Amino acid sequence: MIYYALKKWELMAIVAGKLAAWNPQEPGHLIDLAYAKRRSEGLHIAHTILTHAAEVHPANATIQFNLACYEAQLGNPLAPVAFAAPRPRYCKGSDKA
What we know:
mainly alpha, 62% helix, disordered C terminus, 5 helices, Serine Threonine Protein Phosphatase 5, Tetratricopeptide repeat
């Protein structure tokens, strides 16, 4: 996204928001929106966006990772454990393998 390269976070947030509304099944749009809002408006709004994204895309590792990072930055160091996505069936040690 050109606005990312230019560090135009407000403009990036507008585009990402429109893309997320247009195609809510693409988790990358919500990730981009949270990223831009984090830089333009702060951590709390980005956390809210990713909390919603985690409800819509619960198995998306990028959303889970970023949400865990935001939790830690907000002073909730134990909260990231709650965001750990279940391991896929093929992971070593998985009881579903």
